[in-house]
Amino acid sequence: MTLTNRPLASRILAAAALVAASAAAVAAASADRPDGPPPPDRPMAAHGMPMGGPSMAGPDAMPWLGHPFMLQRLLDDVDATPAQRKQIREIVGNAQDESREQRDERRRLAEQMAELFAQPSVDAKAVEALRQKMLAQHDQSSRRMTQAMLEVSRVLTAEQRQQIAETMKTRREAMDARRGPVERPRR
């Protein structure tokens, strides 16, 4: 039987199972990630962090705010002064501390979604209410990272911000070139 011949309810159930399993996997994976940067004498991959790619910064971070190594390189690229570096590290550190605190809430919500899905009868209203909570939590995280970006923008000069934007664009294009064309599976 092909996917298109299955009754709609079966397809919805399969999709819901995938969402619940994904939520549980994300919660479990984030529980194993160490907080903070890797020790200076250990490479990032050995510290349990992926090498490169958008996930390097974590789910709530702006790409250049998320990882100390990337931030350090960007500050080097724009010849940031010691005073600028100190201010930016403080801004980014505060934002990352708050993000770590919110991670526990994200994990708790993902676990609740998995529990709702595992019930003999899935309560659509409870699932929707929980989805709304997850959306609000994501919005709070996004607002905090945007606030941090604005605070950092006040520390840097317009020229430095432009250099960072160009550097990020170049790195993104290089990553896309290495990745190659993305093929989408056919339905």
Number of helices: 6
Number of strands: 0
- What is the string of SSEs from the N terminus onward? HHHHHH
* Ends apart, CA distance between termini: 14 Å
Number of structural units classed as domains: 1
The oligomeric state is: single chain
Helix share bin: 55-70%
Shape: flat
Strand content: under 5%
Structural class: mainly alpha
Mean pLDDT: 75
Question: Any overview of this molecule?
Answer:
Helix 1 crosses helix 4 and helix 4 (82-118) runs antiparallel to helix 5. This protein has 187 residues and is mainly alpha-helical. Mean pLDDT is 75; it is low at 29-36 and 38-61. The longest helix is centred in the middle third of the chain and has 37 residues, at 82-118. It has one domain. 13% of the residues are buried. The chain is built from six helices and no strands. Residues 43-54 have a biased composition (Low complexity). Keywords: Coiled coil, Signal. InterPro entries: LTXXQ.
